[in-house]
Amino acid sequence: MANWTLVDGDWDLVANKSGATRLGFGLLLKFFELEGRFPDVLEEVPSAAVEYVADLVKVPATDFAKYTLVGRTAEYHRKQIREALEFRPSTVADEKALAEWLAVEVCPVELVEDRQREALLVECRARKIEPPGPTRLEKALVAARGKWEKTFCARTIGRLGEVGTARLLSLVAEDNESGTALLAALKRDPGAVGLDSLLTEITKLDDVRKLGLPDGLFADCSEKLVAAWRARAIKMYPSDFRDTSEDVRIALLAALCSSRQAEITDALVDLLVALVHKINARAERRVEKQLTAELKKVRGKEGILFKLATAAVDKPDEVVRRALFPVVGEKTLRELVAEAKANEKVFKAKVRTTLRSSYSSYYRQMLPPLLNTLGFKCNNTAYRPVMDAMKLLKKYADVDGKTRFYDATDVVPMDGVVRKDWREAVVDDKGKGERIPYELCVLVALRDAVRRREIYVEGAARWRNPEDDLPGDFEATRAVHYAAIRQPLNPRAFIADLRQRMAAGLDRLSGARGRLGGRGEGHHSRASRGSPCRSRSRWPSPPASRPSRRRSHGAGASWICWMC
Known about the structure:
two-stranded parallel ribbon
């Protein structure tokens, strides 16, 4: 209610008024100070504010209903308030200037009409102008959106050039079946994870690249703006495009094709990551199934496991030598361990063999088109083994698959690419690098590097260069982006708020500890060596307020921080 308090200058304005006029003027004055405009109806003024100001001016709150917002008295009051606050009514020239400002500053980054309206009201207040009425305000908004749309279309057409514009228009030209087919293919999402889906997406990406869209076509545009035009275009049929004006048609097609080009690139990377995982997982499942069948043929292991489990349950506090060795025998256990290790080695070897077989006979055909289509890049110039390995793969992409080994003069990167358990499969006794297992290792290393953003893909959106994660228009519209994430522009304000929230959190933690026992009777603290916590707490028994768990804790149980 502090914002509705009448200060010294306000009392001078209401001094010569009485009754409903006095109350209505006071509320209009404070409402204008808060909102930068006058209310359209009395109900816009909060009832609590009416009660508060009525008490200040000593007028019954019910008298506010007698005040009218139209007429000579209300007009005179508005004039008095404008003069007192140094505002002026808006003119036609002001509305044109506001529409121009809105088209340049707000429409490129904010698409929601309500927020555009709010921005316009804030700008009116900054310029000390009383906002125009609702009808004229909407006209200014429509004019601003129309002006910005024309500017956006003209800029897009200018960047495309005559050749690019003609290629886009041909997609929706009548009797152009190939253009219609490409447009329909662009709108389709990739299919299930598999080689066919990956090859289809490669073909689709090559087709859209033939349109020759310039790099950075929408680099300085808001992502929300491009996404809105893309969403509008993807719902349209070729006939719908032809029904729009040519400028809008070109901008819609450019936004659709540019966005889909990046999305198809992302889909290709997703398919690659999922396909590499699928190849490995399928090989492991197949080998596990074979080894499980072989394991069931060995007699006596289930009985041994039963004896071990029984002894462990019956004597849980005994040491292994006293409890388990008399039941099974140390020699038998050592033989089981040796057999298990041998089985693990056999398992890994069989997985490698299965992977090699499935990759060489089927999946290997994806490698040349994938390397020719996707541009993998890395910002690390000092250590880039995966990128060096990719260069080697690209060098041999068109070499006959019957060539089993890399040339002796080629440098085959191993560290950071080939895992230790794969070294013997990649390098033979003479030190030569074998192509097929090495390609498998490179694909796995590439998948991991892409997922941790060490390697990025040119032309992608989600898998783009991490240094480009900031929006292209960030510097020009920093305030808008900070407002979207609800953070202050001033770093000191951010730090102060963070400190306040951290202090409040620590206060709540201290209060909770106090309710759970705190440093009361029976509580002891001692330093925990090597722990990030200063101390850890020990209760003679769990606090009564702590929820019960399936596993009971006996007396003397320790309750420590999860970091300890």
